[in-house]
Amino acid sequence: MKVVCIGSGNVATHFSTAFVAAGYELIQVWSKNQDHAILLADQVGAQAISVEADIDLHADLYLIAVKDDAIPEMVQVLAEVDGLVVHTSGATDLVIFPASMKNCGVLYPLQTFSKTKALDFSKVPLCLEAKNERVLAVLKKIALSLSPLVYEVNSAQRRILHLAAVFACNFSNYLYAIGQDILEKNQLDFEILRPLIMETAEKVQHAFPRDVQTGPAIRNDEQTLSKHKELLTGMPELQDLYETLSKSIKKTV
Amino acid sequence: MKVVCIGSGNVATHFSTAFVAAGYELIQVWSKNQDHAILLADQVGAQAISVEADIDLHADLYLIAVKDDAIPEMVQVLAEVDGLVVHTSGATDLVIFPASMKNCGVLYPLQTFSKTKALDFSKVPLCLEAKNERVLAVLKKIALSLSPLVYEVNSAQRRILHLAAVFACNFSNYLYAIGQDILEKNQLDFEILRPLIMETAEKVQHAFPRDVQTGPAIRNDEQTLSKHKELLTGMPELQDLYETLSKSIKKTV
């Protein structure tokens, strides 16, 4: 199966590598920036291109992994191809593809990618949506060749997943960062907090977070709560955040 | 070395098991509740007791792992022993021990424990404080026999660690729980979010959270931010939380 990768960022890079590992032929990597295209294309043995007109229109699969606001333009470019065209965006509905396009869908990876960190693609949940059942069946086969974690998810559900991911991933990371700040301000090394962060995530791999909530708020430990608020004197934003989150946790009891 | 464990909760259980695994002799487990004492004592081959007067006053080490507000009473009971007395509380200062007690200190595990989840004790950071250098040296040896992650931390720093842990662990878990709620309300399985939670924690094991922040807020992606706020219509508390956290993240750019 011949694949063209549209984009050269984190998502494009991890997908391309996974496709090659699964035996697909990466024929082209397109990026607005030729240098970026070369960087990824060289890794996966593909041709690097940066001109839209150079895109091979006879591939079997086109993976659009560009910024959300650049998707419509790329869809336009690929409007006439026979191959399967998929985008990888959590926040973009299937209707971004015009009605005339039949062989298209969504292949949304619910995972956080960084170029600097290797990632086991078998741990990437892939959320699928397609124009019709026939295309869905094809897309499912492709997805299962990359990861066993394959889910059928419609556009409305995908928006919800993206929102839940912001809470569970982006916001959690921000709370880790607050931990880092608090420690550094007090000459303590972030290193000391890392095992706790790891265990907190591991705990919910086989349990539900609602069932394993710990800490002073859920215990209604007012003494510790007020000690902590005192420690945050001079940091009104963190004080507010501490109070808001603690109040919410108390309500869930 | 003969150890008496005061307490039978999560911390007492994990410490007792680790002590036994490291070759210490657990001679007694004390708990206010005899049934709880028996449950743990049976696991570690110790005598279960629930009467303070039954505590063997000739042990080498007393581990106090009870609720914070019960610590003063247990310190009182152990005021005259020759053995080393340590408490395990993040929020309790060293001065909880009277001046007359010289052989005492703190052995605070910066980790989240649940009885139902096995935990590799070598991944538990142990934070030490002691009355004097001699005691600290003894405590350090003991700590290193349980875990390689040993840190000297004074009472003021320990309070800070505890605060940072609330943000990085308790509050993060609460954000996972919000993710769970949002998914369940939309007939989506929490399972799909688990790999992302794991990868988010793994990412900061070799990087700093400040350097790997992702998501719509850090990208200033106003379109997604307002879409998400719209999805949270009817959930004013989550809307507020979303806005507060996003604003804070934007400020860090």
TrEMBL record, chains A, B:
UniProt-listed InterPro entries: 6-PGluconate_DH-like_C_sf, DUF2520, NAD(P)-bd_dom_sf, P5C_Rdtase_cat_N, TM1727-like_C_sf
One Pfam match: DUF2520
Taxonomic superkingdom: Bacteria
Domain DUF2520: 124-249
Stretches assigned to the Pyrroline-5-carboxylate reductase catalytic N-terminal domain: 2-80
Designated name of the protein: DUF2520 domain-containing protein
Organism: Pedobacter gandavensis
